[in-house]
Amino acid sequence: MSVAIIQRILGLLLLVSSVTMLPPLLIAFWMDESSRVDFSITMLVVMLSGLIVWYPVRRHRQELRVRDGFVVVALFWVVLALVGALPFLFAEQPDMDFTDAMFESTSGLTTTGATVLTGIDRLPRSIQFYRQELQWLGGMGIIVLAVAVLPMLGIGGMQLYRAETPGPVKDNKLTPRITETAKALWYIYLGLTVCCAIGYWFAGMDWFDAIGHSFSTVAIGGFSTHDLSIGFFNSPTIELVAVVFMLLAGVNFSLHFLAWRSVSVLTYFRDSEFKTYITVLALTAVIAVAYLYLSGTFPKLGDALHHGIFQVVSIGTTTGFTTAAYFHWPGFLPVMLLFTSFIGGCAGSTGGGMKVIRFLLLFKQGIREITRLVHPSAQIPVKIGNKAMPERVVESVWGFFATYVGCFTLMMLVLLATGLDQVTAFSAVAACLNNLGPGLGEVGYHYGEINDIAKWVLSMAMILGRLEIFTLLVLLSPAFWRR
Pairing relation of β-strands 387-388 and 383-384? Predict the structure, then answer.
């Protein structure tokens, strides 16, 4: 393992992250807010830290190995969460201790959307914007951004990209060069963000809310500039815009690129993962709308339609926006919606969860095992579309699922041991590991009332979910550290 090259990359990435303090700093100056001091100090501290880390090894030029890539990604996400917590920690409003500041920062960067804050409407505009910006930067990953805008890194960027996006992600290299691939993904991401902001503005938001909510919508984050989230606006038109862009952001960005390059929407409908993604959300929406209407929760069919569809898409894509207190809905609906988040978005999207492609592979593997009971000698491949999946891919998905269940169980038991009730503990781990945000029970509205140990466990769950578990857990393997 090359310590020098890891140190050099980390220093450069810290320098890049210091620049992200500039937009909220400018807003603080424009609005004459006291937080301008907090952002100035944070920007200076992060920039100096980056220089101190980078300068001694600035001349090291060496190919980055896959092992080094995992260390850089895991280390940087932890360091970035710490850096992101500084403005919350320094600010007079909100008044946060270190645990809450780290939780809020981690939640933003991992696009989870779980918050410990109340009174969001009364926060300084610079802090409101900063929370939204954290999610937008975390959406596609600061690592991919750095590879896209810093080709002078002089390292094999593919190792960082693969470490950032583990699992069965197709078309990892959309273009011959990884730098061009990262740029292509960011152009799509930026384009969706701009279109979403314009859509929100036309639907009735002011520019500040439109830009802020476009950040968290396309990032599938769920933070809002209001305590009531999207429900604050009480506008079916705004909710429609949100549904459209949440659906788009939950699709594999490689698929967006291929559809744009071929100038054909049929590209989407040839993809098995996309068809499964739409089918799961559509079926869940039908059940939710029917139950809300028939149970009398919303006596008018129109209200049941727009609340039901919105919450299904928001939770199913792991965005976490709310228009109503879904956790108080009757019967099985809240749990069904929470279970939908376990599937999450498509691989290669900004969504959380286990990813649709893994769910599809697990389902097909289950069907194959049932068929084998009837035909023990049959050779039955697992196919996605018309392509047989290598057994190595199927095995890795089962390995991921087993590890996911193990991590989920362990963290839930720890939360129960801290005194949380079963519904709160289960839903909090599910919401954080799936990068969803709002849970059930005590964490339906916010996470501010739970104990500090639970907040640290859930912060770890957010990072595990964002890096899809293996990227972080591989560092705990003895084999990883052997030469």
Answer: antiparallel
